[in-house]
Amino acid sequence: MIKKRSIAEVIILSLITCGIYYLYWIYSFSNDIKVYLDDETINPGLEVLLSIVTCGIYSIYWMYKYGKYVSTCQEKAGVAIEDNAVLYLVLAIFGLSIVNVGLMQNSMNIVIDHTEV
């Protein structure tokens, strides 16, 4: 079962822990997408490892990649599809990944709300 998370909590914990919670969020978010889409090719542990090994460069690509996955989740849930992958990529390039965290989590929270009804 995927978990609905508080956007403010995710952002604040990511800032307070200097990014450690952000890595946990990447793992959890990737796992939520994996479970929701029933896609065994998604490997949350590898996503975090690549983000660490590349000193965060991979997480810029991760934002784009998972932006596409969020759109797929929205389509599956039957909610309005917003393909914001390019927006996530641009924000990440300019160092605003924390904004992406809020936007992506909000999109998944909407999917979760629609799925539970």
Compact overview of the structure:
The protein has six helices and no strands. It is mostly helical.
Would you kindly provide a written description of the structure presented here, covering whatever features stand out?
The protein has 117 residues and is mainly alpha-helical. α2 packs antiparallel against α3 (44-53). The protein has helices spanning 7-16, 20-37, 44-53, 57-77, 85-93, 97-116. The protein is built from six helices and no strands. The longest helix is centred in the middle third of the chain and has 21 residues, at 57-77.
Terminus-to-terminus distance: 14 Å
How many β-strands, per DSSP? 0
The fraction of residues assigned to DSSP E strands is under 5%
Uncertain segments are: none
Arithmetic mean of pLDDT: 95
The Cα radius of gyration reads: 13 Å
In one word, what is the shape? Answer: globular
Quaternary assembly: single chain
Question: How many discrete structural domains?
Answer: 1
**Helix and strand pattern:** HHHHHH
